[in-house]
What we know:
Blueprint: E1 7-10, H1 34-48, H2 75-94, H3 102-110, H4 114-129, H5 133-154, H6 157-168, H7 177-192, H8 199-229, E2 231-234, H9 245-257, E3 264-267, H10 270-279, H11 283-294, H12 306-322, H13 328-333, H14 341-372, H15 384-396, H16 400-404, H17 409-424, E4 426-431, E5 442-448, E6 454-463, E7 473-478, E8 489-497, H18 510-527, H19 547-554, H20 560-566, H21 578-586, H22 592-611, H23 619-630, H24 646-649, H25 660-677, H26 684-695, H27 703-711, H28 718-723
Helix pairs in contact: 1-2, 2-3, 2-4, 2-5, 2-6, 5-8, 6-7, 8-12, 10-11, 10-15, 14-15, 14-22, 17-18, 17-20, 18-19, 19-25, 22-23, 26-27
The structure holds zinc ion.
Amino acid sequence: MKFKSIVTIFLLSSCLAPAQASQAKDGFNLNTDMESTNTQFSKANSATAENPLLAKWEGAFGGTPLFDRVKVANFKPALESAMAEKLSEIERIANNSAAPTFENTIAAMERTGRTLDRVQAVYGVWSSAMNNAEFQLVESEMNPKLAAFSDKISQNEALFRRIEAVYNSPAKTRLTPEQQRLSWLYYTTFVRAGARLKPDAKAGLSKINQQLAGLFTRFSQNQLADESERFLVLKSEAELAGLPQSLRDAAAQQAAAKKMPGAWIITNTRSSIDPFLTYSDRRELREKAWRMFVNRGDNGDAHDNNAIITEILQLRAERAKLLGYPTHAHWRLDDKMAKTPERTMELMEAVWKPAVARVREEVADMQALAKKEAADIKIEPWDYRYYAEKVRKARYDLDQNEVKQYLQLDKLREGMFWVAGELFGLNFTPTSNVPVYHPDVRVWEVKDKATGKHVGLWYFDPFAREGKSSGAWMNAYRNQERVDGNITTIVSNNSNFVKGKPGEPVLISWDDATTLFHEFGHALHGLSSNVTYPSLSGTSVATDYVEFPSQILERWISTPEVLQKFAVHYQTGKPIPQNLVERIERASAFNQGFATVEYLSSALVDMKMHLAGSQKIDPDAFERKTLAELRMPSELVMRHRTPQFGHVFSSDGYSAGYYSYIWSDVISADAYDAFVEAGGPYDKAVAERLRKNVFSVGNTIDPADAYRAFRGRDPKIEALMRKRGFPVNGSKEVKPTPAKPKAKSR
Ligand SMILES: [Zn+2]
């Protein structure tokens, strides 16, 4: 079993986690015995010829997904046939009469499920970027089956005994370090998934996983419904007061798409709500938009997520108990870099207080400005972005719309490619001879600049559209590996930029440009991978480490080299003026109170909900109580309120794991300092150390060891505090784990 055959990574701002994050462990009727499964397999085999999802990927670059031939009706038979094929491969390994060895057990497992990997790669794309009512029916049926399928493998007694034998064998010391790490990963993952439970407990566990898979799918579909079916209609010029032209154009396009000519529509997603809240002069409309957005999944109607959350939390608590952990949070953290919930709470609490103090200062500044403008108001959550923008202009003479004129999507993409060339020696050239699933998607071939050798492919799906999840993410359609010959990777970046008028350059905000670089950091993590086994490849690392490569890459957008060459005015072609760059720099820690508190409040609620054990939780009440205890400032809300917290409730992926972003940011800020301390952001020696110890190693070594090899010590929190403009006191080390996490036995 490959643990992360499909890797999906979300940006902090991503509202809706596409469902395939959970798919790597998902499938089949638990009680199906092998015989009937095999029958199904041979029956399905005859259908293979007509089902393009089951075909080998063809063409250049070691083959690419046959996106142009996919029909929704293909998914169910393809998944069922591919699951059956993998199960029969696994049965052969489990029932091998030869004594267990690394080769005939662990390496053999790495060779299984090739067809399923291909099918799931495409399934994931449809789930996150091509979703519709027809596909949702397939998801609702197949996700619980995929969950059962995964349990069927991890609960295979004979298979686990072989894995355990390899892991405990004295011969293990003769394996390569990567092989030893892989043996440890298999053993640990199986134990964590319940391989040691008694048969009735195993059955109970699998039932819980299937129930959860169904609930996750319903949660996502409800959220998608509230984001697409609810919207704000503006009917007159007067209701557009304050909105920049680009936002008016986008709103008019939305209205046209919904057959409401002459009106303007603000959709219920972050990419339209945030700018509306920033610019609309109409306070009552801001409030209306804000309420619509923060109440997604919380409207007491058919798409309400509260009851689903209560059920998810109870099932997770029950599962943790079965597996021998006090809470779901303890189970989730056990194989992460942070190791325990307590360590994450310690970090979050250390940052919480200075961040709240900064919010008070920000609010005072906004209140003063509102007063000066003779607005007799108390700052409310729907005012925060609006007045923050005014303070930004007044204090730093920085207007986001002025900056935007220099941020053309195409140019910035060239800028990212240039950075990848400087840091990692990669070269990107467009290629048009591979199929895509939508005309907006473009593909680049990635080569080694020095040798000209093919490295991989990078797919880019930049624009928002119906049926595509909001937010931004990266995924890998195929992992780099060399178990049997050299397999190169295929990665993709996905975002939701608003498409401009035909023929006009797409201008994006500074925040969106940062997002672009962030996701590209994940892509480079995948593209730099240089390992043998696919389960250890690229971004298949702990969730609290995986944001480090992406967050550090964000820093290169503000380097003078990138700004001068690639931030050029969309009309004049002139590079961004130096004094504007300086104003951007001076304002870099502006509004960090807001950004940090809205993020941390979500991360703290996530952790506390999953530490609460098996009590029955009313999500709204729990959220209110927790925020009151934290003394959450009343002027802002959680970035993701519970009923719309897709990171946490659309899969297990980031559950008790939203802290990962700040944990990783401590590391990325500390790592960037290594460049600053040396020759600057393009220092060749530091870049090479980063490639060698972080970007290329995947999960072949413990992340704490990898970081020490790069930095010569553990990460410290100071760089993060400085980056966010918070006071630094004392040297608090974020002490990572002891070398190898021990598997927790029941
Ligand atoms: Zn990310």
